[in-house]
Amino acid sequence: MGGPRGTPVSRSARASRRGGGADNVRIAPATSTVAGGPRLKKRREKILLAGDTVAGKSYTWMQMAAMFYTAAKEAGEVCPNFYVIDTDDTCPTAIGPGEEFEYLSWENGGPIIPLPCEDWQETASQAKYALEEAKEGDWIIVDVMNRVYDFAQLEIGDRKDINIDDATVTRGLNGQGFGAFEGNVWNLVSRVHDSVFNRLMFSTPAHVLMLAHITDIVVERGEKRERMVMFENVGVRPRGRGVVAEIAQTVVIIWTTQDVPMDGGKRKKRGSHQSKTDRHIYVTKDRGKPFAVRDRIGNTPVWTKIEELRATKLMPENILSDEELAETESLNETLDIEVEEPDDDE
Predict the structure, then answer these.
(1) Is residue 18 part of a domain?
(2) Does residue 30 form part of some domain?
(3) Is residue 318 in some structural domain?
(4) What is the CATH number of the domain that holds 73?
(5) What gap in Å lies between CA 47 and CA 249, rounded to an integer?
(6) What is the pTM of this model?
(7) 252: containing domain
């Protein structure tokens, strides 16, 4: 139940609400009863932010909520809400008692509304709640999106009475390919995942920020052309279903590095020095346009850095030439398959 908790609307209820059994189908353009006409929807953010475990993915939306809250308070305005579909158990360490952003909790009159999820049914219900409640200017946060894909796999596995851990190992040992399922079952997994993802992308007036863990690009696995174009320059890609990065309008990778102190040409003994950690950002596309910008973040909030990069109007620097693109497409033709394969390597 949604989150506060709610009961999903049944398929039959949705059909009757649209006037529909089989005798009243209105799908084709010629028979549609919905009034058409030109209108321009307001631009909203559809951001995928991927990064390693210490890069500050979750801290990004916490800082955003704090910045928006402070700005709204100073201007005497209402702060936008942050509906956090929390699949990673992040909110308790963000807005729980004694935590840094406790004052931002909805219980304290703040904008952060936690929607915890532990399986697919809770995820679907909490997404429904966020989609119904979020208004223009609000934010829907998914922390993290790749776990939504994991939950979809577990849901299909349960319904087909398949233990996906055992099945994955068994298929691997038998040389039957990656993952727990046959190709057609992966299509079912994708359909379940997309029942939430598509609504986040196309059926809400709110901004959407999706977080994801990262994994290495593995060329030998035949990474799809779109992923190679977007992520080859950094060597990593977001975990989860690949379509998320393809449809998101802004895709950002953040990661951390540490210096390697040297002593006479050799690395210093571990524990004998204080390492310095730095953060970096790579924007592979922004608001639907190729961007390919890499920069250092340091302690700058990620949202602030994105706005700074947008303000500079930097030109794309790593766009494939027509010849390179043709070569990539030719290579990709040998990798195409009829059914969907799993998008992740977990």
Answers:
(1) no
(2) no
(3) yes
(4) 3.40.50.300
(5) 6
(6) 0.80
(7) 42-259+276-333
* 4 assigned to some structural domain: no
Take residue 220 and report the two structure tokens written for it: 């030998």
* Model confidence pLDDT, tens digit, residues 53-112: 889 999 999 999 999 999 999 999 999 999 999 999 999 999 999 999 999 999 999 999
Handedness of CA 123, 203, 187, 7 (dihedral sign): positive
Other beta carbons within 10 Å of 18? 11
Residue pLDDT, tens place only, 113-154: 999 999 999 999 999 999 999 999 999 999 999 999 999 999
Q: Tokens 């009243």 label which residue? A: 24
CB 141 within 8 Å of CB 113? no
Residue 161's region, left for phi above 0, alpha for psi from -120 to 50, else beta, is left
Would you say 341 and 179 are in contact if contact means Cβ atoms under 8 Å apart? Answer: yes
At 231-266, the pLDDT tens digits run: 888 888 999 999 999 999 999 999 988 765 655 555
Alpha-carbon span 343 to 241, nearest angstrom? 5
End-to-end CA separation in angstroms for the chain: 28
Count of domains in the chain? 1
